[in-house]
Amino acid sequence: MRRFLCLLGFSLVHALSAAERPNVLFIYADDWGWGDLACHGHPHLKTPNLDRIAKEGTDFHHFVVCNPVCSPSRTAIVTGQYPARHRVHQHFASHAENEARQMPDWLDPKAPLLSRIFKEAGYATGHFGKWHLSGQGKDTSPPLPAEYGYDEARAWTGPGAGVFEGSSVEKISGDAHDKHAASFMTIAATDHALNFIRKAKDKPFYVNLWLHETHHLVSATDEDKKEYPDTAEPQRTYYSAVTRADKQIGRMLALLDELKIADNTLVLFSSDNGPENSMPEPGQKFYFSVGDTGGLRGRKRSLYMGGVNVPFLVRWPGHVPAGRVDKTSVIAGVDMLPTLLAATGVSMPANYQPDGVNVLAAFQGEAFTRPQPLFWEWRGPNSHDHDWPQLSMRDGFHTLVMSRDEKQVELYDLTKDRSQQHDLATSEPDRTAKMVAAIKNWKATLPEQSDPPAPTARRPRAPALKTPSKPGTDYTAAFKRWDKNSDGFLSLEEYTNGLAQKENAPQRFKNFDKNNDGKVSEEEFVKR
Predict the structure, then answer these.
(1) What is the mean pLDDT of residues 227-250?
(2) Fewer CB within 10 A of the end CB, N or C, for the chain?
(3) For residue 411, what is the enclosing H or E element?
(4) Is pLDDT above 80 for 3?
(5) The domain at 374-443 falls in which architecture?
(6) What are the angstrom distances between the C-alpha of 401 and each of 196, 277, 390, 412, 420?
(7) pTM (global) more than 0.90
(8) Can you give the residue ranges of every domain in the chain?
């Protein structure tokens, strides 16, 4: 009988007219760790509005994104397909960097896209906040968000109209790496999201509010810091930034209440990957990046759970059970497209093959067992101990991580070992062999590309070739001139722009990049 009622409810959703369809508000944070919520047990952070979503909805503990950095993670959300299928392996950057990574300069706007599907179904579609489905267009000409199906967009790390113009903080300008501007970017994005929803009152809406917090540069104003008067740095700045973002989420919830549409709005909150790797000394780039994985192993750029298992809260009154904590449903970023279409009664495009599955039953509180495994490919740097895995698979609660050359393979049972401390690869050779074979079979379905080298953190480096220089070159002065955003590091783009002769710039950049982390510190540059 219960199953019949569930199916009946599902069919009723599909019978809704466009005007009756539920709204969707997708709030996507940046580098926000699983442990960075009060409702996940953080002893100091204040996140009352996220706690409210959890209290009025369901908190899913086993939600995983499909890559441990932002652009590919976001690609999986909007396409319902593994980012490797679109050759999106790391964040979109300059053309030279994208080319070196065997990536396109942007996600193809002709790909299957949640935004376009919703727009064609009669939804008002808006994107406000971080973009990063391309770069900002400094040396490329990326498509505008309108080409991806958005009626209106205001973004950073992307082309087109920026977030500050027309917002309550319009007089502020700058990008995500500007200490002052970074404290106001999500406020500006929220202003636009609120205005868009007010204007969309006669249509169902699909809105992305993609937060800046807690990506570098983590910043907070003196006013923000009043929330944590007795907290020492760097935690004070980090906690203040988190709480500031939570307040913007509160503004969104308040508007839904004001317009009396909260019961007809599906609200989702998650993060694109785990927290950034912090640095211990004041003045270092990631000094304030002190996010919490909640005890999970690994951080951003890692295929251990700390890099991909992130918060996932869902609220939809009358459909998603309130106050529920789901510790059994394994849900992934690629599931969002098929699930949101099912929840809103919008048909899947013809001939579309998602990598995700419809998990609406899990949203509705039904018992849910994932019918197929999940796969990951990481083609980025392996500069930290927990960044070495390059391929991974999750089958139920068993997760395997491995290097591409198969010289290192680890297996974990997350039902007993959520923190991934007890490797079972040797004690369960049959399961290990089957999962390794499954990963190789999956990889064979991806676009053909040459493999990057084995993890550099696990092998000796060849002596670096020195870049020829003119006698008397002042490398310290050159570094400061070329470091345009003054973050203490040179990106490949900054390095290339500084060179008079740009031939072989990516290889020359690698010669400076001693720890292979994708950026060059002043010490690496000056000492060569």
Answers:
(1) 98
(2) N
(3) strand 409-413
(4) no
(5) 2-Layer Sandwich (3.30)
(6) 43, 20, 7, 9, 11
(7) no
(8) 2-11+25-363, 374-443, 464-527
Residue 472: burial class (beta carbons within 10 Å; 0-12, 13-18, 19+): exposed
pLDDT tier, 455 (very low <50, low <70, confident <90, very high otherwise): low
Crossing angle of helices 235-258 and 185-199, in 10° steps, is 10
Chain centroid, CA 134 distance in Å: 14
* Alpha-carbon gap, residue 199 to 221, rounded angstroms: 31
Enter the tokens of residue 220: 């907070």
Structure tokens at 427: 């004690």
d(Cα 96, Cα 85) in Å, to the nearest integer? 21
- CATH fold of 464-527 reads Recoverin; domain 1 (1.10.238)
Determine the distance from the C-alpha atom of residue 304 to the mean position of all C-alpha atoms in its chain, rounded to a whole number.
15
> Architecture of 2-11+25-363 per CATH?
3-Layer(aba) Sandwich (3.40)
Q: Identify the residue with better confidence: 527 or 347.
A: 347
Across the range 342-364, mean pLDDT stands at 97
Residue type, 241: A
pLDDT tens for 355-376 read: 999 999 999 999 999 999 999 9
Instruction: Report CA torsion sign: 149, 155, 157, 160.
Output: positive
Amino acid at 517: D
Rounded-to-integer distance, Cα 381 and Cα 93, Å: 15
Contact 399, 305 (CB under 8 A): yes
Strands of the sheet with 23-29, listed across from one edge: 152-156, 124-130, 205-210, 23-29, 265-271, 312-315, 58-60, 324-326
Contact 284, 488 (CB under 8 A): yes
Buried b (16+ CB within 10 A) or exposed e, 6-17: eeeebeebeeee
The yes-or-no verdict on residue 452 having pLDDT over 90 is no
Alpha carbon distance 131, 331 (integer Å): 23
Q: Are strands 324-326 and 63-64 parallel, antiparallel or unpaired?
A: unpaired
pLDDT of the residue at 497: 77
The per-residue pLDDT of the chain, averaged, comes to 90
Do you find a cis peptide bond into 217, omega within 30 degrees of 0? yes
The distance from CA 458 to its chain's CA centroid, rounded to whole angstroms, is: 26
pLDDT at 512 over 80: no
Q: If you search the block for the tokens 């409702």, which residue do you land on?
A: 39
For 38-86, what is each residue's pLDDT tens digit?
999 999 999 999 999 999 999 999 999 999 999 999 999 999 999 999 9
Rounded to the nearest 10 degrees, what angle do helices 336-344 and 70-79 cross at?
40
What is the pairing mode between strands 489-490 and 23-29? unpaired
Amino acid at 169: V
